[in-house]
Amino acid sequence: MSHEDETPLPPRRPKPRPLQTTLAEGQETFQPASKTAGGTSKSKVRRTTDEPRPAIGGPNWAERILFGKVSSGHLATFCGQFARYQEAGVDLIRSLSSLQKQFARTALGPVIGRIEVAVRAGESLASAMAREPQAFDKLCLSMMRVAEARGGEPETLQGLSRHYEARQRMIRQARSAMIYPAIVLVIAFAVVMLLTIFVIPKMVEFIADGLRGKNVDLPMPTQVLMSISHFMTAQGWWIVPSASVATIFGVLWWYRTPAGKYVLDGLSLYVPILGKIRKKIETTRFARTLAALLNAGVDVGTSLVLTSEVMTLSPYKRAIAGVKAEVMDGAELSEALQETRCFSTDVIAMVNSGEETGKLPETLDKIADDYEEQVEYMVKNLGNLIQPLLMVGLGGIVLFIVLGVILAYLQMLASA
Fold it and tell me: Which of 151, 323, 324, 386 could form a disulfide with 336 if both were Cys (CB 3.0 to 4.6 A apart)?
């Protein structure tokens, strides 16, 4: 859609156009058919001015420093407000101008300004949004191009708003799930370091003084404590935290590589409690994204490709990509999902039910709602779930130190 000035035009319902649903090499999303009945090529949107096209690239480095990245919360608010403007019949240019003022102090403000310039120059809304790949993902662009071709922008924007709101909730829940364990691990590491640096050397010195001149076989816990003390004394206490920090940075660097990400993502799924939470989060993300795309009219094959790109865990990303190939070969979605072994039996059963009743998008939304509720409950109770593990771990360390000292003391009394 395009406008040359800010005067509202009479509402016009665009006619449905055939869609090119095959995702070709290098093509990110749908393209409306551009052939007329006579076979001549005809552009969907004509440029009405000689104004140069805006450059592609999204927010520049200065905008990222000043405002940061475009968040899911900003996108949810933008899509929701934009949909209300469109439903009320507000002119597209005026809607963009108002939204630009509303988001002026955020990373989305300059982006909306450039979209407004492109639309004034004769670009379609989806084409102008495609020039901001760092602000709008492939899922959003695909849904908007299909909406423009079919004439359902307000409904699609509302769906995107709900999708980004759900994504924002997932991000908050995932962060909440990771923050508490991270704090617990830091505290546990600090306690162990304090015991190793200040407590164990004094205990070992006491034991060594009591056993000086005696030929006594020390128990294993005592030998371990003395070895730790000698190592810390000879090498310096700083080597342990330095090695720990170097290990953390090394793991993070490896995680940025495809092989490292695949291995660590796979291992994280087997971590008690956290692995279960991550599986449920990925299931929610899969169901919510696929439902939004199918509701917007995107075909199943392209929807699965875009859904796989939204997945954060590499095993799930590869699994969904494999599901797309099987579905394109004629397999049922539920059967293909079952073969991945990434989804629980209740998810497979509900997807199968949705396929049989012809209500797959509604069923996927139901799955997302149920699993999101489960994730929220588990995150709220994460402290109660991890606290026993923390107590057992720290208690085991303290017990080992106490045994090392007491057994050595008893050995001293027996040899006296």
Answer: 323
